[in-house]
């Protein structure tokens, strides 16, 4: 049996293309999945390359973007090839069978707003002062 279930966030916007005899939608994306136990010296997440076809790919194209939290079920597939030097390169990808949202739209919007606010605050915890106001500051 080859079945896995993953929950995580898209690390980038999906790459979409159409191909094959029926002009089928093919969606490719990467999913970051948090590890249950975090090590101080290692990564806190694993990253999975995922591919979806047909109607599932169309759903991904229409509704998913970087940062969206999803739950999916799929199958692990080898993605091995021989490189130009003649060496075998071993890899794998997840073929997505089903995918669903794992957070509400409201929670996603709140997360995006918080992320935007964090980007506006500098490393010292204060918002940056525009250059034209620098002269007016009393402590310059």
What do the pLDDT scores average to? 86
Q: How many DSSP helices?
A: 2
Task: State the major sheet.
Answer: 5 strands, mixed, barrel
Strand content: 35-45%
- The first-to-last residue Cα distance is 68 Å
CATH superfamily: Nucleic acid-binding proteins
**CATH top level label:** Mainly Beta
Helix share, percent: 10-25%
Number of strands: 8
Task: Catalogue the unreliable spans.
Answer: none
Total domains: 1
**Radius of gyration using CA atoms only:** 21 Å
Structural class: alpha+beta
CATH fold-level topology? OB fold (Dihydrolipoamide Acetyltransferase, E2P)
The ordered H/E elements are EEEEHEEEEH
Describe what is shown at a glance:
It contains two helices and eight strands. The chain is α+β, with helices and mostly antiparallel strands.
What descriptors fit this protein?
two-stranded antiparallel sheet; alpha+beta; 140 residues; 5-stranded mixed beta barrel; extended
Describe this structure in words.
The protein has helices at residues 54-63, 105-120, and strands at 4-10, 15-19, 24-34, 45-53, 69-78, 81-82, 88-89, 92-101. It is built from 2 helices and 8 strands; from the N terminus they run E-E-E-E-H-E-E-E-E-H. The protein has 140 residues and is an alpha+beta fold. Strand 2 and strand 3 form a beta hairpin. The radius of gyration is 21 Å and the shape is extended. It has one domain (4-136): Beta Barrel (OB fold (Dihydrolipoamide Acetyltransferase, E2P)), CATH 2.40.50.140. 19% of the residues lie in helices and 40% in strands.
């Amino acid at each position: 049996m080859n079945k896995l279930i993953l929950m995580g966030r898209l690390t980038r916007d999906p790459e979409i293309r159409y191909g094959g005899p029926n002009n089928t939608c093919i969606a490719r994306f990467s999913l970051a999945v948090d590890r249950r136990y975090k090590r101080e010296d290692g990564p806190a997440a694993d990253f999975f390359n995922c591919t979806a076809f047909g109607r599932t790919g169309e759903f991904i194209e229409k509704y998913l973007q970087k940062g969206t939290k999803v739950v999916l079920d799929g199958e692990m597939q080898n993605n091995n090839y021989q490189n130009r030097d003649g060496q075998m390169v071993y890899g794998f990808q997840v073929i997505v069978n089903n995918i669903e949202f794992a957070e509400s739209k409201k929670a996603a919007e709140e997360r995006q707003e918080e992320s935007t606010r964090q980007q506006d605050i500098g490393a010292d915890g204060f918002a940056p002062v525009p250059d034209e106001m620098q002269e007016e500051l009393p402590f310059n």
